[in-house]
Batch of 4 targets.
Target 1
Amino acid sequence: IFTSFTLPRRPRLLTLHSLFTKSIHDDERRMDHRYLSWQDVAKRRTLLDFSSSLTSSSFEGDEEVEPSSVLEYGRFQLGLFLSGVFIVALYVYAEFLHHVRMKRMHNGGYNKGLAEDSIEMRMAGTKKFDVLLEGGGGGGGGGGNTPDGSMISNSMQDMSDEDKKRSFANFTDSFGRQNSQSGNMSDAVGASPSTGDNGNVKFTNIGAMRILQGDADAIERARLILRSWAELFFILFVFYVCDRTNTFPERTKSYSRDFFIAIFVTLAAYGCYQTLRQSKTSAPLNREQTEEWKGWMQVLFLLYHYFKASEIYNAIRIFIAAYVWMTGFGNFSYYHVRKDFSVGRFSQMMWRLNFFVLFVCIALRNDYVLYYICPMHTLFTLFVYFSLLVFKEHNTSTNMIVAKMVILIVLVYVIWEVPGVFTVLFKPFEWLLSYTDPKKPDVNPMHEWFFRSGLDRYVWIYGMVCAFVHPKYEAFVRWVDEKPTKEKTVIQGLILTVNTIAAYWWYTTYYVLPKLEYNVVHPYTSWIPITIFIIFRNFSLTMRSYFIHIFCECGKITLETYISQFHIWLSSSVPNGQPGMLLGLFPEEYPVLNFMLCTAIYVGISQRIFMLTNDLKVACVPNANNRLLSLHAYFGVAWFIGMGIAGSALL
């Protein structure tokens, strides 16, 4: 399999290369943040350089270097391949065990649907590795209740509770597998998830360890989770084949303004006429509205990349700022209202942001910052979380919240605008946050992270401010709605007039600037169009009460579509390469058909990645048992170490 991949790779160990090869030429770099201000960097950098496509060649200045004929792989990359083979084999074995169990039950005269229900009841939910260790509700016993009632099929929902218990008891008595691990799990089953910690859980008892020990019952119980892992590894394999081999040809980007506009207008028109739905609430910035907002921005963002629509560069910058604004708005709303600073919930958030991108970085040997949205949102999420965690008992005080926001503004100013501070602060994380574009090897490897994170360094704080004043804004719009028709019309007309004037002023003053000049003012002005849009979108009850469902669905998978576009929609061919070409499934004479087919596959895979990420989050990141969560973390670290060792053995 390895020898069939003919594309050369540069010698480099994944994204951790700086741990082993420290640069000694920083003084020769063209971008040194110890001496350059933010304005200097912004003037020299564009969003994404699609001006010329990447090929299998690497570049040193203007001189083209012939690629090496030797295939080179990272140790973690090979270890990930072995892990994928192992997981797929385990899943096949789990399906075999399940099939054998069903066949035995069928031969024993049991109703097939009832037998399926009994197995699911005994397993107490197959969406988690360790639901029995988390306890609660008779999860591992014969009580006949599952943590999630949706796991019981229709054949059993029609039965009485007594019939269910009798059927379950008959099943477990006949096959004697219910208590096969009672000696290992007796201490854990009775634990209550409300305790948040279970000191009786042992590392050798968690589901993953029991699977490695060959426990057939644990393997069968984890059948659906193993299926999710197998699907994930298959998707990574597809990424590799599409973007790192010559299996599919590359196509050149071309931009047609008419075609670009036609695609978006057609999608928007279809959404308005066919998927317009009423929101569950008429509150401003409700969940459906923000998902819709993310969705239509993501569509334009992706089309911008696909067609190289450089004329809307400034608009794309605003869209990315709006995503970052939502990071501050959403996280502040959750932590300030619910006051849930639990380790489990925080870990699930980090999983959502970084799980898939971590595996993609390993499989494709790309740097983390190539997918800069992930580290940027992670950083600002950490800022929001820890700013509210400190003195959290005083978060109900307006003065405390204002003080925290002022401190955050000062902190951001010092980090990004005082020369040298950024370099010193992020130096320990250079192994994780450095990025070297193969077309620009002489640029400081921390420049990309400095530029990306700096462009939207303030807007997430503005998101926190908006979340804090959101109750007052909601009260204001409801007050307007309750006014008599004449007064309401006058107030809404005044709001629209002022907002339109502000939009025109911002457009003529800032938006029309050339992109390099716009980069300089963007960090300080991006909040203006965001505020204008929020006011337009929520100025009336009708506007707040409806949303376009198709854009809402697109908004749910923005992270997955962002990551996947690099490898199964666009093409870069080399590690860390910017996607300057298109994936080709049709001959070059059929660009529209190629766009349609690639887009259908790409969106479908992104949707599936979203579902897999959530399924595996439930399985691997329990939010109600800190002890179990820590054991899963230990297992994950041990597994990655094992991947490195196994990969080294193959090099």
Note: The beta strands are 58-60, 63-65, 250-251, 276-278, 546-548, 570-571, 581-583.
Target 2
Amino acid sequence: PSAVVDPRVDEDARRRRESARRRAPQMQQPVRRKPKVAQKATLKLNSKGLTTAGKVAGALGVGVDVVRRALAALGSEQRRRDADLDGDTAELAAMEIGRTLEVVRAVKAARVVKDSIEETDAKEALLRAETLEREASDAFEKAAAPYPSGDDWSSLPLRPPTVAVLGHVDHGKTTLLDALRGTQTSEAGGITQSLSAFTVGNSTFLDTPGHAAFSAMRQASTHAVDCGVVVVAADDGVMPQTQEAVKQCRDAQASIIICVTKCDVCEVKEDDLRLELLDKCGLATEHDGGDAPLVKVSAKTNDLDELRTTLELVAEVSDLRADPSARARGAVLDVSSDAKTGLTIDGVVRWGTLRKGDVIVCGDWHGKVRSVVADPLGAQGTEAGPGAPVRFSAALSCEGGGPLEGQFVVVEDAATARSVAALRGRALAARRSAAEARSVADRVAVAVDDDEEENVVLRPPVVLKVATDAEAKACEAALQALPSGRAVADVIKCDVGAVTPSDVELASTFDAPIFAFNVGASGSVREACRRRDVAYTRHDIVYSLVDDVASYLSSKLPPDRISKDVARAEVLQLFQLSNGSTVIGCRIIEGNFPASAGVRVARSGEVVATDARGVSSLRRVKDTVAEVPKGLECGVGLHSAEVSGMVQEGDVLEAFVVEERPADLGNVT
């Protein structure tokens, strides 16, 4: 008998079958996914507007080799991972890969004050420094002998004028002074490198150096100058130090005389010179309605009468007077130091009379005069009167570590001197604190771009020894003027006097050379240098010193590698060898093709590939040769199989060699 099926079960089965039939078409259809939309990649350039192949690859999400192949296809030589690329090249490489790259140029952040506390501290420190400086200046003037006025002034005797001879290097300043004095000066290197004062007739003359490095010396002369004779060579015209001389005379409120030298060498174009003075210096001569006389001289033929007459007229109009019985006031020109005599100061007395035993103040220095030479070129004396050049030794103490420069005055007693110098010392300390506070405020206030790449500058240490304070400033200024893109001399000690054993010890500790200018070293010190392996050189010309320091700095840098093209060869035919390598058949069309050269492949004037390792084999017929001259044919094998595979007939192989040269201090790579 047939089985009886429960109608409810049959109905469930039917429903399952119907549901399966309805689902079947959907299950057979593939799943449709939304297509991915390629997002635009963004790359930020550094502050120089550059990036690298590695950064481009990271932004695009591809391997760096993909980017390098794209750069090769574009003909770019910058295909190393760390090679610099500009923004346009990065965008083109992305397009070559089939991607879109948005390049963002870095914009240097504007100067903004992030924290006003540092700025406030800097302003308060500056205000304190200025207040103390005013108090120190007032105390200095109060301690010095006062100047009379009115009828008292006109009753005083005349004093000799102080005349500074200024101008550009090699314009004939020293030759002019020799002609006035009837002497003949011999100088190292043929240039003046020191500041000297001497008396000629009724005037005191200052001979100043003209080299750019001695700007501090020329500035020191303006503390004592009444009249500036600005020397201009007839064959050279107005030069940079001429402009500086005019400015310094104006700052010192001194009369100006334009003295045209070398008139016996060439014709003086006076109209052109006056226009040049007016244009470059803003100085109008008497001919143009100004106050500056223009005189023409020839030191060789001793044609100096016009200059002498003009100096006498200027001195008469200036009405220079002084009280010889008053306490002295003067100006410091230069300072030297000696183990036996101590500090020796060259200067000019401007007021009163300087005597042995006087108590003086100069800046934050104070002490007693031990001896006086009335003229630096004359004999020992006991006093120096108004307008006289003077050299004196003194036992001085320093209250604040400041420089011994500027004006000096004789005060009543040692207590007054100490008080005035101490106040000046506090003012100097406050000025240094203000400078430090300003530096901190500036560092906080300036927002620095995180991607900005700073060049690492080497600072090799050096020890500098000189004869005088003025030479120390001049030498430091000359070293600071050297190109500083890659290396800067770190002067760990700049001192006056001969080289000592302690200098050798310091140089040995810091592995620094010793450069001496116009000073020497004893035999025992030179032996210590040899024993401690310390380089010691002595110079008497500033050019020589600067060149020697520059060579030392250059030696501390890796040599510059310079690529030099040596030959060109036209590709005639390509030969495939059984080992899979390629031999390039060429004809040399320029230069001698060496076997040790690197090779660039040029096509239609553009470089398409470079093999820095270059030639692996160079054959002439069947012989391996070291060089193939112009006009001959040869076979060239390259180290890079990739570059060999890119060479086509008609291409040009450019052979180059890399030469090493001493590093250029200013060339930042």
Note: The longest helix spans residues 414-445.
Target 3
Amino acid sequence: DAASPVSFVPISEETVEVVSREDNLVILRGLTGRIKPGASLKTEFGTGVLLASREPLGFALLRESSSSSSSSPSSSKQATLLAERFKMPFAAEAAVGHVVGTFGERADAKTSEAASSGSFQATPPTSDEPGRELLTEFPDVNARQTVRASMRTGVASLDVLSPLGRGQSLLIMGPRESGINELANNVAATTGKDTRTIYCATRGASTVEAFAQAASNDTTASTIIVAPREQDAHAGERYAAILTAISLAEDWRDSGVHVKLVIDDFSAMPRFFEYMLKTEREELGSAGIDSEAAEMVEIDGTLMSAVAAERRRFFGILMQSAAAMSEANGAGSLTLLPVLSLVDDSFVDGSPDAALAALEDAPTGDSVAAQEARELATGKVKRKLPSREQIMAMSISEEQRTKLLAAVEAMEASSSSETSEAEGVDSSSAYNGTFTRSLAEELMSIADGQILLLPKRNKHRDGLAASYRPDVRNTVSRLGEDAAAPALRSIGISRVRLGMMQAWDSVDVLRMKGGNTNLQRLQNDFDRAATVYRALLDKRDAKLRSLSEIAMHLVIGDALAEPAKWADEKSAADATAASATAILATNPASYDDLFDKAMACLDANVAKSVDETSKLTKEGKQAFMDAACSALSEKF
């Protein structure tokens, strides 16, 4: 069209200026937006791929470096962006059982060695057929179908409190030591007869080694490991590794395959975005970013700064790759599970531990406001300052930024290494969680759900060594029961989480108002909810749960909460349930014996049918109830 602006005329290449280079990351100037991220790049010191742009700046990662490359090129150096988009050197199916690096190249030596210990091949595959492009458009609503099929993990707390559906995006969140990577490894290692897995190890050898230990031979036969090409990689390299993993996952998804993609650390996303903002300030000054920070735009009915809106789109491009494709588009699916390491205490503790402490303090009539005032006065609560990277990404004035940075420096100068050692903190490490609450909530608003794990330092009062403990209040799947296994839906798993929430909320009301005439009833309700919660905790080094085992835990909890449903004589049922609740509250370890008795009473054919079909008939449900009733009556 002769009337079209020049910027819309297709071009085959574009010449831009090379501003600087850090490791393999090249900063470009002069982009016009006519060539999009994912394009191939040619420079006199190597070829690469354009990862992202903030016009007029671009950020590209080198694939091959020439021996004459310079880390600080002069302003006269130029690069050529090609309209031709980079394609993976092989299809996803060819890479099964391999560990591959960014862009399908070789991962660093330590990571390859760690992967080979788990029977993965340390070198990428060779193929004559290229794979999928990087950074393709995510599927629109017409190409998708509603997520209804369950992707069971064998992790009881996840399968019940936030069931995972094929095509869903689910965040695995928690402080660094909460077990988030342990949970992610177990989910990644779960095998399914028609499911593929991609494990994106942005942190390299450390997480690959842990995953390789959790993986079985069946896992290796259906899994690809993707990792950066070097240890301690730049955020740009780690971001490119995520793009590589998503490209392979999309290749499977669009071929009609069901694939789950687990990303061991999603911090490369905000850190690379922060790096782009920092570079723009250094190269172009802060005027443009300050203007974007002041400009307000509306996204999904919410007003936010233009910078925040761009960051949301940056996250959303990757999150939207999770999809269940329609029958016309192959009926495959991509289930996305990124791990978010939170700044400690980003969220209020929503565990029975916190509720129990409040319940035990409730008769004093102490208010929340009084407790918080006392904690602040005694120094039990310390206000946390954001990291330098978080400050640089904030939509604030330069004056405010300078003050915050000065405060961070003063705080670091005043902290002693002795205090760090006493608290068990590695004083040499600058890494203490990446995602603040506001940043986590930004991703939560995009994802289909999340499981939030509590810090391990908050030990459970029964002393059980749980690998990870979910925060019931902040753990949720926005797909509801549709994502749950049919057998669990027939039991009514939504009532399980609702019962816990009601017990926790009742404690909160009591804490706020002080005193309650029905304190004993509240204690009983809480103890029943806490018993079910403990039953769902996954013990360290224990095998993943079968579907019939998870179902039995829920049925026992149902029997305790509503005894009239499983016994003919209501008075006898009430007495048995009251006795069981009281004993389990004071001696939670006795629950394991109760569960073992219930499983022994269950017809083996019923259990086998549930595990193989994921369905529970009316007769099968009654068999579970009868087994739970027999075990409760015998034990209590």
Note: The longest helix spans residues 493-513.
Target 4
Amino acid sequence: RRTGQHRRSAHTPPRDAPLTMGLCGCCGSPPVDEAATGDDVMNRNRRCTDILFLLLYVAFMVAFFIIGIVGFVGGDPRILLYGTDYEGNLCTEDLPVRYWVNPLEIYELTQATHTYDMKDVKSICLKDCPSTGASGLNWVCNYPDSVDGRGYAGMTRAEWAANNYDYYSSLSADLKKDSLNNKGPCYPVLLPTVNNYESCTYFGNSSTTATTALAAEQVSNGCTSSTCDYELRAVGPMVATLSSTVSDFLSTPMATFERYIDDFAQAWVVLLVMGFIAPVVLSFVWMGVLRYFTGLFAYLIIFMVNAMAILCTLYLYMKAGVIGQDQVTAYVGDDMGENLEGYTDPSEDNQEVLKYCAHVALAITIVLFLFTLLMLKRVRTAVAVIKVATQAIGGAPSVVFFPLAPVFASLLFGAWWIAAGIYIYSSGEIKQQTCTLEADKAPMKYCANQTAVPNANCHCGYESVMDESLQYTLLYHLFGLLWTTQFFQAMSFLTLASVFATYYFNRGSYGGSISGWINTPVIRAFRKMSWYHTGSAAFGSLLVAILQFIRIIVAYMVHQLKKAGKDNLLVKYAACCVQYCLWYLQKIIEWINRNTYILIAIEGKSFCASAMEALSLIFNNLATVGAVNVIGDVLLFLGKLSVSLACGVLAFLYLDDDAYATGDNKVSSPLLIVIFCIIFGFVIAGLFMSVVEMAIDTTLLSFCKDCKLHGGKPRYAPKLLESVLGKFETKAEKEAKKNRA
């Protein structure tokens, strides 16, 4: 229990509290509790936050999964993959294979004048793909109980299937003539087909035997070129040409794809070592570089920026003629001066413009130089913050692997979302789609009954139709994906922020939370954040999800306008502005959320209170925050770039070895493997650097909060940060500290 003295000190500022704002620039200072420990700061106000939003999220997800289960029960993805037969029915287990009975109808799809798609081509469900006759002509006929009445009542479906789908010989003379005209109910099998994903695909040339038998059948039924469709006899060359075109289109990419797959099989060790192990090792190396050489990189960046500004200014003055060859020669010598003459000889037309540009550049350079001098103290603080952040990661190395957890959780959730979405989408009512029916064009061209179309015999194909309720269900399903993925990310941010805030407020250590596998800082932080602040994570993720959802809706509307031909210049400009503003607003919300999660991890307050506090700390310490962010972002980007490029170079050197250049393990081209290693390296380095970025941001806001709690001077700062800040103390402050000691 606290003593009465401690209770009193919580409301009484210390006698020697500094009157200045110190390095943090905080406006005013609250009462300071001298007896409070770092744990007191982090846990004394912690409570369950934003419970209403947690309940809302739980209720939303219960409905989300119920909708998914209903979709699994009522949907059938086969309609999306294979479509329906000519009666609008899916092919069942008894008749699983879909066969398109009229190859001419498919061929006309390749012509520019077609007004229909593959769903409108007549198809039927069979046990297996039909074969051409070895000694005669085979037929595939309508179902014997066909809904259009053009079947054969003397046969059941079982008998029809057992008879190879053929009852042509039992038809009347008129129906036979219709069949010879490709209008059914029976269709000649002239081309060989193969089962490809439960669909019969044409290949090769037509059967000579079948074509000869068809010609004989047409003659025996009194057909002439004017009364029968002789085009059927020429279907072989048509399909052969079509097949050749498709084969030529696919052969080269497919051969290349197969070769690359073989390369991956041969060089899987390179992918494993250089695409996964090397990025992990190199990321740790880069964190070590940040820990010990951040100052060097920071001052080198500052020097390069100022040097480039000076060089640009000098170049503009030379182009403007203000600095001539004589002045240049005096500093760089005759040879260099002559070489620069071609670059510094000004043009009469733009000399005045260049002179004004040079004056502006000079002003910017002077401001930049003065700003650099003023920011040197902040830069030192930024360097110290980054070093402390890397120390925090070094104290608990397992924290760098924590982002893999939400990644895997998102992948598992994404798999459920895709599967459920497909089933929900396929649960719509199957209806005839709309197409153009013209007497001289397919598909109406091949209809026996062309009066009062569409009718049972002549109609367009079928598709799964989304009614209004199904559309809203899919939108709900989409929003569930957006909210949940953002929720996973929010919990990741909260957990990492709690880990690094604990390190800061324990003066650069994790205390007892570093021992054992069950009591690691990450697990402790995750348990704490999950128990207290899942509601805040649900709140913050909801805000981002709403903006993402609005952006998707706007993008869809723009796409529809473009599709309808209404995307004039004004509409394009307005749509671009709206989309950019929404994107920018989303980035602002994400930035606020990130810093809010840090304050929640530090103080345990609600989302709104933490957001206000985070913004207050940032704007009251804008110079320090800016310095840390600029230096940190540059160094982290260099880290990701260096790691990914190093992985690519090492992979190329590895593949250049004789083991992969010759022999059975020869790789045809190392380029794709090297590119994959670079991509994997960048992604993995990005995961590591995201941890470093969170450590930097958390350390910075912890430092600012520490300053605000203690009159402008940090009390819980780790030794490294404290040693740097100690260099900035004025002589009076050092004397005051000496007297207090």
Note: Residues 268-320 form the longest helix (53 residues).
